[in-house]
Amino acid sequence: FKKTQPIAETEKWTEEDVHRWLMTEVKVHKTCADRFVEEEVSGDSLVAFKKTDILDLGIKHGPAVKIISYLESLRDGLQRDQFPAYVENWTKEQVHQWLLQHVNVYSKYAIRLQEEDVSGDCLVCFKKQDLLDLEVKTKRTNQTCKSVFSVFLKCAICLNEQAISLPGILVNQALNMYFWFFLQTSVLPGVPNITVVIQETLDNLKKEDFKKFHFHLKQYKTSQFQPIRESKLEGKDTMDTAQLMTDHYESNGAVRVTVDVLREINQCERANQLENTMGKTTNVKMNLNNEFAFSCSKYSTVKNKYTLHCGLEQHLLSRDKKKEANQGEKLKNLLTCGGNSLDNYDNMIIVVNKSSPEQVQYLKFLNKLKLFCVLDFDPDSNTQVGLCHSYRESRWANLHTPSQYQGQIDSVIKNLNLYKQTSWVFCNGRHDLEGDSNKELNYWNWLRKSCSDVEQLVSFICNPEVFLHGRSLIMFLLLSPVDSEKDPICDTYKAFMNTYEKWKELIQEKLDFDIDPQSVYELSLSEVNGTVLALRPFSESSERLLPSSDSSFVVLKNKDEDLLTALDILCLNQCENIYEDKSPEFNDKRTKVEEEFYRGGKVKWWNFFFCDKDKQKPFIKRDKYENLKRMIRSELRESKEMCVLLNLFHNPGCGGTTLAMHVMWDLRKEIRCAVLKDNSLFPLIDDSKETENPYKLCNCIPQTVVSHSNINVDKAQSCKVIILNCVRSQNPKDSYRRHNPSQYITASLSPEEQNEFEKKLNELRETHDTPENFYSFMIMKSNFDKKYIDDLVHNTLENFDFSSKNAKLFSFLALLNSYVAESEISRSLLYEGIRILHSSIASACLEEFERSHSLKVSDITIEILHCDLFFSSKRRMIFVKASTRFEKSLSIPQALARYLYIKEHDFPEALKWAEKAKNIKANPYTFDTIGQIHKSNLKSNNDRGKQETSCNPEDLNTNIKIASNAITAFKKAQELADSEEEPEEEPEEEPEEKAVDESDDFPQKSYHVQGYVGVLEIAFLVFEILSRLPFFDQSDPMKKMYFQRFLKKAIPITSVYKEDNERNNIYEEIIKEHERFLQNLKAEVKETFELLDSFFTYMKGRYPEFQRKISSLFKHYVSLFCNTPKEMKKEQQNNPNLNLKINIEEQRLFLEKNQADTFEIERITECYAYLQKQHHQLNDKKQKTKETINCILSNIVLYLLKPNSKHVKSIDSLSDLLSTTLQDVGLRYPFPDPYYLALLLFWPRTTEEDTEIATYVTAIRNSTRKYLTPLFQKRSTVAHLYLGKEKGLKRLVSKPQLDENFKKMHRETLAQLWRNGDIFKDKTIINRLQRVRGSIEQGEVFANYGKLKIPVRPALVHRVSGGFSTEKVSFYLGFAIKGPIAYDIQYEN
After folding, report:
1. Residues 1086, 1023 contacting (CB under 8 angstroms)
2. Of 70, 178, 586, 742, which is least packed with CB atoms within 10 Å of its CB?
3. In the Cβ-directed half-sphere of 231, how many Cα atoms lie within 13 Å?
4. Between 408 and 288, where is the model more confident?
5. Counting Cβ atoms within 10 Å, is residue 1030 exposed (0-12), middle (13-18) or buried (19+)?
6. Do 666 and 761 meet the contact criterion of CB atoms below 8 Å apart?
7. Which InterPro entries match (predicted)?
8. pLDDT recorded at residue 1036
9. Dihedral Cα 747, 753, 754, 758, nearest 10 deg
């Protein structure tokens, strides 16, 4: 059929002709065309049809309007108006979406059109009357009709006009923050893409040619492409074929295959046309603005269309004249500051509004940027089709809200893991989470509820203390229309602008800037994506690779690297494919990196990479290079240990760290290498004052692997870790001799090394103007010649004005860098952070100050203390001065007290400073320090007493007083530790085990049971002192008996037999004065042993260092107070866990004998049931409550042991009993039992929301805090019951029931599965237990039942990722005496 025919010819059509016309030209659904055949409609009746006639056939409004439109074209003999193919391809669902989002019609009108099957091809045929016939109001009718013609124009014009009226752009040079805008019109449903282009090409083929195309497509196969299965192509039309090809081959592949197949069927002209078409940005790159203008020029031929059209066309024509020639280049310049690399920015902040699923595929460039945070106004961003979800498929981001950015800067940075991981901030709701607080707000509600939080977030980002170094870029991505100033994105932009008003000298008064120079709005997202990805450093880089077994390699995924925040991972292809060899960028980068390093900066991987590229100019290999490399390989090959510590001792500034990294660089292709970045964890490759902490790490790694993985350490030969620990030492060679395995390097070059440095200097002269000014390099080249350094410093400082402020700051720096090599004065004090790059220069400066300017180190130190900038503390005088300067700091008197009692043994002075620290703040550690001073004093006195032949009775009086004061201090320290939430400092240890200045350098530990241990140690010192008294001599059985009976309170001191002499009489008087204290000691020691025995037995975790010490003391206790084997055996049985030599089988028999069997549980349950019946006669309310609770609990235990017992009550009966009890006791019952039962019986079902279970969780936590002894409060308890899938009491599953499935498994293996959580991966456990949905918010875990959130504790804290990210999770639930516990936490995303 021709597109237009004379009406006379149409009247001659048969019924089949009408059907064919409807199917091929009008392209209605076959059911519609069949209705015309059923009603015997031929051409003569068709030409007389009106819309009502077609509707009378039962055809819906959409197809009816389309048929009439085509029929009118036939009648008038005119060509139909041409609309873009992608509009006509819209489904009725896409039309519905467009009407709601872009025309803003009421929902009921959009639904009405969808119900009438109005798809895109029908919509373009609609006139005003057609909409009125569908009961669309006049105003909305006009709006919809106009929008059909402005569909490509409306969003762009509104957005761009509004954007230009925004408050402008600011480049803040002081803060190094920059803005740029990308304005993207909304991607409308079915925008022209490769699928549409291929379909249009196939539409132009004849039927036979299309069959040939299908036949060759089935056979198409190359090394790159596999054919589409024949079954998939069967019966597919052009549209389905095009979609199938783009899905199978992806976009570029689909075009290539289409062109190849077209040429195979001799359709070369169409193949060439397709290739040319794909070269145009209107199709391939989806340049929407070009498409807008193109579409508008076509619409201008339409007769009697709406007046809006002319205005829009004029606007586009005027904008087209102003269109920039190359927005791609502009985008590139904005991102790179005019260069070719993104390295100019250290942090990027993205502000983005709503995106569509079609846009997300073109935002992959975000994965490559150094994103500090993203401010996202799309509540659907973390759903399956959202931008955040797409980003998190390949990168890690913590999910936050603006309110989480409030508080102290350091705390926010630490809690949210800023700098380490991207923060994705949802600024207006989050629909992947349930609850009203996560719903999107309209503008006015957002302004009232959320705007202030976003403003504070912006204020935080713009705080100069947040980004101390480097440049930051703030990028606005407007992916959907902003057609009103009443939009949160506008307020956010305003907040950024208002923040900068604080720096009046940096911006103009009115912020009257044109945003256009900093905006990109004429590029499509695909063009932006391609432009950014083409920039270095990732334009040509391949995946980061790590070595694997058998000379293979594995890809290091970005997301995995994001999660390893503590490691700087060295890949085998590190630095490769980033810069083109010998290019200007390559040479500039090399020059910059070399200059920074040879001036004294830290070595970078780039240094080794550039030297590898130029084999004629290799990196200098130190003499110990081969030794160190050989030692590492030897340990990997021969050591049987999983983790080995190798120490590299070196003089400061002699290149120890550089040597270590050089060896790592050359081993990177055979060993996986990484540097520990966080110095607070102690470095793998960095300067460390002590080797103790790396040894702790070395012990910790195997324990962690055993606890949290299935790796068999003994069998996995490849599972080895080498810790290469660089240790500064003033005498590396001596340190090397004391530690094995180790290596050392000194500040002395061999002749061969000196020759290499001379050669390198000549090489540097070829590429650098004055390499002689690379002082760090020149110091090493001079073989660390002190005369060279002294002359350098003398000449530099010769004309220096020491009266100036700069001179004072320089003297501070010299002092700081002499002791702390990398210390610097921060940019908050100066314009840039500065330091002296080499410690030997800093030390020489101090000598020059004193030699030439009479400025002593002590004078500089005192000056620092009097300066508001900093302080330093090294000697007693400095401590004293510092304490005066910082009166409220407890660290200084605390540190001085430690120094005095450990190093100088000046106990009275130490006690004075320890008391001062305690008065500033009383905490476990200030009291512990007091106790340790007394203990050291007592030990010192005791040791001296052992050496003296004659004893002074007054010494006994002094020692007992010291002991009493020590025990008081240790008890107070333990009391505070049990009541405090978090420790603030590290506790004291033995003097020989603790460095003077160690307290602030290493992570702090929990106080645990140090106070109790201190009490025991003091008591046994007192026992030892007493045992040396003449009448308590332990070698005499009778005197030993008196010693024991006195301490057991059996006799007073006056009843102890003793020789009548003056010395003994004085001893007796002294003991009488302290008799109560001394006679309470034995009972107190016994009570402490019992308490610690319970602690180690029932609490989760292991404390081997305490257990060994306490066990040793317990053996001493038994030998002191137990004379007979029977007494010793009795004491051992009372404290089974404190004696390491008790027979294991004996313990098992002991436990088995005392376990209640099923019969006894039945008797107990029966008794409680009887008591329940007699409760009406009982007046004691507490007794009633206790018996009721025990009755319920015994029923649950009996059910678990013998579910068919006649004594087990129904769950309804138990629930009623418990409800009554809970009403009686309320929520403040001092014991956790009723609330524990409430968790077991009242835990909600899947659909329950209205329950008070959360209040019972709070109640059980409060009661355990009161009920359990302070020592037990902060320790983990174990769950004995778990939530199962059944109903009633069957949903309670006990741990023994679960263990029944693993009878054949070795006991220790099973225990290991429970410890690391792998038990929950077993199918029998999965089938038995109920998985609960929940969330993690602010680091807390919740079980979610609709709107109900129940707080639970994670069994393994490390399963809760850092960064306070809000995540959806699921887990298994256990019930412990402290409340519900979450096991096997799994993240949904």
Report:
1. no
2. 586
3. 0
4. 408
5. middle
6. no
7. DAPIN, DEATH-like_dom_sf, SAM, SAM/pointed_sf
8. 86
9. -130
Strands (DSSP E) along 1297-1378, which ranges?
1331-1337, 1340-1345, 1348-1354, 1367-1376
Residues 720/633, Cβ–Cβ less than 8 Å: no
Strand 1281-1283 versus strand 1292-1294 pairing type: antiparallel
Give the model confidence (pLDDT) of 502-518 as tens digits.
433 333 333 444 555 66
Evaluate whether 155 touches 450 at the Cβ level (below 8 Å): no
Here the contacts of 1121-1126 (C-beta below 8 Å, separation 24 or greater) are: 1121/1044, 1121/1047, 1121/1048, 1121/1082, 1123/1041, 1123/1044
Neighbours of 715 (CB within 10 A): 7
Helix 891-899, helix 924-947: angle, nearest 10: 10
Strands 545-547 and 553-555: antiparallel
Could you tell me which residues are beta bridge partners of residue 546?
554
Supply φ then ψ for residue 1208, to 5 degrees. -80, 125
Residues β-bridged to residue 371: 348
Q: Which residues pair with 568 in a beta bridge?
A: 675
Distance between CA atoms of residues 969 and 915, nearest Å: 11
Biggest alpha carbon distance in the chain?
Answer: 149
1342-1355 pLDDT tens trace: 999 888 899 999 98
Backbone angles phi, psi at 843, to 5 degrees: -65, -40
CA atoms within 13 A on the CB side of 1070: 18
Look up the pTM and report it.
0.55
Q: Report the alpha-carbon angle 1161-1167-1170, nearest 5.
A: 145
User: In 100-241, where do the E strands start and end?
Assistant: 177-183
Gap between the Cα atoms of 1324 and 1333, Å rounded: 20
Q: Provide the CA 995 distance to its chain's centre, in angstroms.
A: 33
Beta bridge partners of 350: 374, 475
Whether the Cβ atoms of residue 1229 and residue 1306 lie closer than 8 Å to each other: no
CB 1277 within 8 A of CB 1099: yes
1009/1071: higher pLDDT: 1071
Residue 70 or residue 1183, greater confidence: 70
pLDDT at residue 373 tops 90 = yes
Write the CB contacts of 1054 (distance below 8 Å, at least 6 apart in sequence).
Answer: 1068, 1072
CA distances from 956 to 242, 947, 1024, 1068, 1386 (A): 100, 15, 12, 11, 62
Exposure string for 211-249, b = 16+ CB within 10 A, e = fewer: ebbbebbeebeeeebeebeeeebeeeebbebbbbbbebb
Q: What is the pLDDT of residues 299-347, one digit of tens each?
A: 222 322 222 233 223 333 333 434 455 677 777 777 776 666 777 788 8
Instruction: Map 402-454 to HEC letters.
Output: HHHHCCCHHHHHHHCCCCCCEEEEECCCCCCCCCHHHCCCCHHHHHHHCHHHH
Exposed, middle or buried, 799 (CB in 10 Å: 0-12/13-18/19+)?
Answer: exposed
SS3 for 840? helix
